[in-house]
């Protein structure tokens, strides 16, 4: 029968392994959540860009319809200036949408990366703790002259 010190060391080592694995699984779940958020941010940015492009198309169509209804030329210098200004503002908005979407994706991507690092750290910490406990037991046994 094993003595109480050996039982305690093995139990502590097993608990360290279990804690490491639990930490690993929790960090992996956190990583998956960040990845999902990153994908959601990407999709939301794409959708927002589509909506802004649709609003641009509507604005240009409205401008053309108003000019046509008034009997004004669609190719006049004034019409061209208004059209270019409308397009430029929309392009600026779309650039801002893309930039914000990339920023959010990057933030969630970094969170996922860190969670992955934490997962490995938790696992290594658990294995290291278990190994340390077993090493301490072996050293104590060697010092006392008892075989492990």
Condensed summary:
Helices cover 91% and strands 0% of the residues. The protein is built from two helices and no strands.
Structure in words:
The chain is mainly α and 148 residues long. The protein has helices at 4-69, 77-144. The longest helix is centred in the C-terminal third of the chain and has 68 residues, at 77-144. The radius of gyration is 32 Å and the shape is rod-shaped. The model has no long low-confidence stretch (mean pLDDT 91).
Tell me the radius of gyration. 32 Å
Helix/strand order: HH
Strand content: under 5%
How helical, in percent, are the residues?
over 70%
Tally of separate domains: 1
Q: Describe the global form.
A: rod-shaped
Derived from helix and strand composition plus strand pairing, the structural class reads mainly alpha
Count of runs of 4 or more consecutive helical residues: 2
The tally of strands reads 0
Distance between the termini: 12 Å
Mean pLDDT: 91
């Amino acid at each position: 029968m094993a003595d109480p010190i050996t039982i305690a060391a093995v139990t502590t080592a097993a608990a360290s392994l279990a804690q490491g694995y639990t930490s690993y699984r929790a960090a992996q779940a956190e990583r998956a959540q960040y990845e999902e958020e990153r994908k959601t941010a990407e999709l939301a940015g794409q959708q927002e860009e589509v909506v802004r492009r649709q609003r641009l198309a509507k604005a240009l169509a409205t401008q053309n319809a108003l000019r046509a209804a008034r009997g004004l030329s669609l190719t006049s210098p004034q019409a061209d200036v208004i059209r270019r200004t409308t397009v430029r503002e929309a392009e600026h908005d779309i650039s801002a949408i893309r930039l914000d979407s990339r920023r959010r994706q990057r933030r969630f991507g970094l969170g996922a990366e860190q969670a992955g690092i934490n997962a490995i750290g938790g696992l290594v910490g658990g294995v290291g703790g278990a190994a340390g406990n077993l090493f301490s037991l072996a050293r104590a046994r060697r010092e006392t002259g008892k075989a492990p």
